[in-house]
Design a protein that fits this description.
mainly alpha; 19 helices; globular
Length: 536
Amino acid sequence: MTSHPPTNPHTTKSHPTTAHRRPVGPTPTGNSRAPDNNGTPSNNRTPDNSPTPTAAEVPTPHPSKPRTLGTWLPLLATCLGTFLLLVYATIVTVALPSIAADLHAGFGPLQWVVDVYTLALAGLLLGMGSLGDSLGRKRLYVRGLTAFTVATLACGLAPNVQVLIAARAVQGAAGAAMFATLLPLIGLTYTGRDRAKAFAIWGAVAGAASCAGNIAGGILTHFLSWQWIFYGAVPLCAATLALSAKVLARDTTRPTHIDWPGIVTFTLAALGITFGFIRGGEAGWSAPSTLLGFLTGAALLAAFLLVERSAARHPTQQPMLPLALFRSPAFNGMLLAACVYYLAGFGFLPVLSLWLQDGAGLSSLGTSFVLTAQPAAFFATSALVGSALHRMPARWTLGGGSLIVGLGDLAFLMTAPGSSWPALLPGLVLTGVGAGLVSPVLPATAMSSASPAHAGVAAAAANSARQLGLALGIALLGTVFHQYAPPPTPSPTAYAHALHAVFLLAATLALTGGLLSTHLLTRPPHHHSKPHPAAS
């Protein structure tokens, strides 16, 4: 994720209506990118307008002091937390067939094993920023990491798929607490060139974690068992927790209003809609449980809008997501691109993993290496053109990248009943290239699409839109796959038809969303702040 290193060494005074968003502001979560399933930023810098802490908040190392090993221990602690957080967004993908066989899980529960982590992360990310401001970022990070460690162990010990899903939900909620505080802690600990170097190192670790998920999941499942994708991380979680508690500086706390009604209604609305998609594939689109999920999600989404509007009018409350942001065409275009490129570029990975192992006959290890073609293309794109992307208009990067993802989905249509893994490579490469165009500039574009006062929450909203796009993509595309290739043993023809339906729908959504976001990003912004080059 890219942004610019702060150049103003002085403290930025918080406005009373925006102070609660500082943890998810430009320096921290606004900059942080959730896993691209397959990639992360080619470079990471903090924005020019990011607030800097006072000396009373955190003692920061003076740039002139000699750098020692101890100077970088806080960065090591946060990078280890980043690795753990992002690797668990993808590590279960290749293990799904083994989980299904061992826990006797159907296709719907398998979708929840992946989706519930992403939903908890997306639904709680904005609110956790406010909580970090009240509790202190170090305290919330340590508590989140503690819960993450316990939940990871519970995942490995799960006796059935229901317990596994519940433990994954706790993992996602704990991950949101970590994600909302990781980059703020780095920004508060380092200054000047050390801060720029710290964010660059963080970006490299984040990229490695996203790529390592599929590979680690395949290796551990192949040589040990799926439980070891969780057991293996427990010692690392414990070591990270001990290191973090010792070396991270404690920041000051500020009593702030937390928009609990907004957090609850937003998260439950996302859960309801996702449940409707997954249940539709299992019980039918007209089933009472399916309709109940959609209706509940829609009602809670309406309630969320009313809650946020009421909070904006109240003198002592602040909304989690100011609805005024949606008046900006650039903000809407950015959110649309963030959602559709993630949905269409990565939502198909669980069903692709199932097909590679059950249909094409690959092992979990072979499947992990095939899927790695996508993050490889992502990293190559970011490395080759990453610096140039920030000088291009956002309609070319966000809109154009989404369109390339759509073309990649169309390339998957080359699969036939007798096809094997080589038929997937063009689609994996193209979707990786498209994602490599969108991801590096998305945070900066998000911040430039809003006024300076709302830049941080706009960037955090982009992260949430990405994760929600992934969750809905897994649910929607998985449901379509299930309709055409019902278990237990679909024929090669049924598998081919299922993949065609999945990728045709993904391509339609990506191409439509790409064109619409391009149009919205072309329209002039409604605020008067100086635009970032990425959004010009």
